[in-house]
Amino acid sequence: MWLLVGLGNPGSRYARTRHNIGFMVLEALAAPLGLTFRERTDYRISNGFMENERVIFMEPLTFMNRSGIAVRKVVERYAIPPDRIIIVHDDLDLPTGRLKIRKKGSSGGHNGMESVIQSLGSRDFIRVKIGIGRDPQVPAEVFVLSKFRRDEIPVIREAVVQAAQAVALIIAEGPDRAMNKYNS
Predict the structure, then answer these.
(1) What are the chain's domains?
(2) For the chain, percent of residues with pLDDT exceeding 70
(3) Helix, coil or strand: residue 63
């Protein structure tokens, strides 16, 4: 069993913002499987099969900086080990649309990831990071909540597709194979 977490903020105000790219990837993976999400107190959840593996799809509803609270509840409920957790999130330090997969590591200054690390007491889970760029004229906390510019939308659409394919490859063949393919 795998736990696939897309990080983002709940509500229409944040839909399609840079910080919600994790939600976008999760929805891109769930849609062709015909999955419907059930809403719980702190998260939305669904489950299905990808690459002949059972996968739990989860979106925290605790807002980005408290994502770990929701992730921990699901991890404890289903007894999922860290190496079977994939977290998809935005990354300010990567150019817009660039992917980077890591098997473990620090939060890299991402508050949602820091919350997950603190709540789980582990850094040993897989991350699929999607670059959202950075604007030195705009404070990071404002920039991550902004929508993509018109010229970025095709790049982000392609990045969402690529991230979904990367997640499927991780589940099918492991993170090393996915890192070799997508971390170029």
Answers:
(1) 2-182 (3.40.50.1470)
(2) 100
(3) coil
